[in-house]
Design brief:
- Helix 3 (54-68) runs antiparallel to helix 4 (84-96).
- The protein has one domain (3-116).
- It is 66% helix and 0% strand.
- The N and C termini lie far apart (60 Å).
- The protein is mainly α.
- The longest helix is centred in the C-terminal third of the chain and has 23 residues, at 98-120.
Length: 144
């Protein structure tokens, strides 16, 4: 694993610790944005999602770095205003990368749905089959 990968993982860990520590001071949207950025970086690093261009990973890493850096445009120690600039940088980055993010979320959602289905899948018992047999939704609609 290269030094860049290690640094990105440490950055993600630091962002997650900051979210836990400062959770009340940070809006829910910013928390969701940070979590999404973290997920994307980790998925890229662990190889589970490699469709992201390197420039996207670099931009996500830079936005996450800005979030965890307490000495940015508006110091994070300033009450309420300290995270406004962080939120703006995250929001701008996510808007700029909306195509890559949509692709990632689509894949993530699909994977979660498949996992839930597989987890909840049980074999059909004979009593689960309707007396008229198994029909498609279109046939049921036509019959009704």
């Amino acid at each position: 694993m290269g030094s860049t990968s290690i640094e990105l993982r440490l950055l993600v860990e630091r962002a997650e610790r900051l979210l836990k520590k400062k959770g009340r001071a940070i809006s829910h949207q910013v928390m969701a944005d940070v979590k999404l950025v973290s997920q994307m970086i980790i998925a890229y690093l662990d190889g589970s999602y490699r469709q992201l261009p390197w420039a996207t990973i670099a931009a996500l890493g830079a936005a996450l770095f800005y979030f965890v850096n307490p000495f940015d445009l508006v110091f994070d120690a300033v009450p309420l205003a300290g995270y406004v600039d962080d939120a703006a940088v995250l929001s701008f980055t996510l808007r700029a990368l909306r195509y890559d993010i949509a692709q990632f979320q689509s894949r993530l959602g699909k994977g979660e749905r498949e996992a839930k289905l597989a987890q909840n899948r049980e074999p059909l018992a004979v009593t689960d089959i309707p007396s008229g047999g198994i029909t498609s939704d279109s046939q049921q609609t036509a019959d009704e």
